[in-house]
Amino acid sequence: MFRPAFLRLTHKLAILGTAGVWLCLLAALLGQVAWPFDLFAHFRVQYAALFVVLACVLMVLRRFSIAVVAAAGFGVSVVPLLPYIASEPVQVAVATTTPEEAFRLVSFNVWFRNRDMARVAEYIEKSQADAVVLLELTQPQAEQLLPLLPTYPHYHMDTSRMGSAVFTKWPVLSAESVPLSRSGSVVASRMMLDWRGTPVTVLGVHLMWPMGPNNSEYRNQELNSLVALSKAQRGPLLVAGDFNLTPWSEYFSDALEESGLHDAALGFGLARSWPAQFAPVGIRIDHCLMSRHWRSVTTAVGPSLGSDHLPIVADLVIPAAVPGE
Length: 325
Known about the structure:
Number of strands: 12
CATH architecture of the largest domain: 4-Layer Sandwich
Pfam families: Exo_endo_phos
Low-confidence stretches: 88-98
Distance between the termini: 69 Å
Transmembrane segments: 41-61, 66-86
Strand content: 15-25%
Shape: elongated
Cofactor: Mn(2+); Mg(2+)
InterPro entries: Endo/exonu/phosph_ase_sf (IPR036691), Endo/exonuclease/phosphatase (IPR005135), TDP2-like (IPR051547)
CATH superfamily of the largest domain: Endonuclease/exonuclease/phosphatase
Domain Endonuclease/exonuclease/phosphatase: 106-309
Strand order of the largest sheet: 3-4-2-1-12-11
Structural class: alpha+beta
Helix content: 25-40%
Number of domains: 2
Order of helices and strands: HHHHHEHEHEEEEEHEHEEEE
Largest sheet: 6 strands, mixed
CATH class of the largest domain: Alpha Beta
CATH topology of the largest domain: Deoxyribonuclease I, Chain A
């Protein structure tokens, strides 16, 4: 039997924990009121897990009313997660879709401190990706990487800290760097490639980390630029990279709604992409967004490659008939 002192302490901690997680959740719901609140929005998975633990502890302690409060917190936390874990992906005759028919995109924040370019290159070569988006690729890293990627002779890159690079095995129709905010520090790489006769545009992005009012405002400007670029694009478009933003943020959902883009990960789980070193606090801030021309076959994360991020891999197809065309 547990000692009374231990039970009293556990009881107090469980109640305080329930109140604390609820406060975090309420802050997350106010993400567009002030920039610090939006940071709380990214940990919905952790809130849901904590509420489950707290509800179980409170049930054991026979504090049923507080356990109901924790259970309610779990319900509120889990609602935005359901489309990722419970929805049925749009069917595109996946059974008849071969790897050769799908477009594979890999997106990976290399990390400017990563010294293992050989392992990164080996993974990219083995991935058989049609396009690869790399973030935080420095000039010295690029010089090491390029000779190790014989399958990807075509590329466009900006090696600034918030720049991006796109590599492909397919012929390139056009490539350019696109500033995304007035600060000029975030530069997207836009490449149009010829994929089996179909022009496909890949936009590689690395949005500002929204710590502080200025950076948060820049990040919002960058999202607005992505919305504008996406709405102006007429053909198949993929936007991939490090958004420094999870799907649980209202800014993310608003950008999707306004742009007409769709999250390729819907229906394929809650896999974290950052930080690679510590799964319990992992969140997914690396994404592949797709225009209405695409349907997602699968989206997953790759192995640890010396970065604080994990790569994401998305397989997509263009159905024979696109709605509205």
